[in-house]
Each structure stands twice: as C-alpha cells, then as structure tokens.
Amino acid sequence: MPGTLRLGGRIDQLDCAAAGACSAAGSFYVGQQAQPFVSTEENGTWHKAQTITGAGPGPSPALDSLSCRAAGSCVLAGAIAAPGGIQAATAAQVNGRWGPARALPGVRTLDRGHNSAIDAVFCPARSRCTAVGSFGILVSGKLFVTAQR
Question: Measured between alpha carbons, how far is 141 from 99 in angstroms, rounded to an integer?
C-alpha cells in the first residue's frame, strides 16, 4: 500500500463499498505514540496512505472501526486522546476526502470526563450510521448507542 512502507504500521479495518472502491484503516507508531492512518482505493488503485488529523500521535488514539456506505463515503470510529483520558471520536470521508477526527458530541457529558470509545460503527447504504461504544471505562463501564444521518 503506497505510503505505508516507512510507517511500519498495520491495517486494522478494511471495508469495500464496491469492487475496486475500498478504504483501509490502521495505525503506525512514532516512538510509543500511535498515529491512525487511512488509505483509499479508487477504480482498483490504492492511493497514498494519509494520517487522520486530530487523532494523534498520542498514547491511546485508536480509530479502528470502519464502515463505508458508498465509494468515497466512509466513517472511521474509535477514540482519540483528550484531556484526562480518551474520548469516543469519528472521522468522516465525504466525496473521497477525509476530515479530521472529532470527539463524539455529548459523550463527555455522559461520562463526566472519563474515558469513552466507539467499539463498532455501521453505515448501511443510503442510511444513517449507528455506533456502539462504552464510557466510564475506568469507573463503572456503561454502554451507549448513537445514530446520525
């Protein structure tokens, strides 16, 4: 995969919206810090891997759940480093371009600033995405489910 040879990383997720239209997500390490990256295949050709802005490097960013509803339209989910721990986060690919990782709105209020993460995301074609995760991981551990168009 172009752009990954010197990174020494690994692919954690792969999703294909159609033949020859896939996205792959993984991470590489900068010292002890993980840095998430993605690569997209268009018409059977893989593009150079790129890092996800807003997601590291850090001690615990893990954007390792991927779902693509159509070619060039994917959601990557997991957690990013935040003050006081890790927070559930997503990054979206719209029209083939990846945006930055952003903390999931509302979870910080739910977990009162404790750790949270998205464990899985699913985006069926022409529908909304649904994610499941947990918060208060180090305190009491509770599950959450969210959906967005």
Answer: 29
Question: d(Cα 51, Cα 87) in Å, to the nearest integer?
Answer: 18
Q: What percent of the chain is modeled with pLDDT above 90? A: 22
Residue range 10-148, CATH number: 2.120.10.10
Higher pLDDT, 74 or 107: 74
Please say whether the beta carbons of 90 and 104 come within 8 A: yes
DSSP assignment string, the chain: -TT-TTTT-EEEEEEEEETTEEEEEEEEEETTEEEEEEEEEETTEEPPPEEPTTS-SBSS-EEEEEEEEETTEEEEEEEEEETTEEEEEEEEEETTEE---EEPTTHHHHTTTS-EEEEEEE--TTS-EEEEEEE-TTTT-EEEEEEE-
User: Could you tell me the pTM of the whole model?
Assistant: 0.83
The Cα 100–Cα 137 span in angstroms is: 24
Instruction: Show me where the domains of the chain are located.
Output: 10-148
Q: What tens digit of pLDDT does each residue of 95-113 get?
A: 889 999 998 887 777 776 6
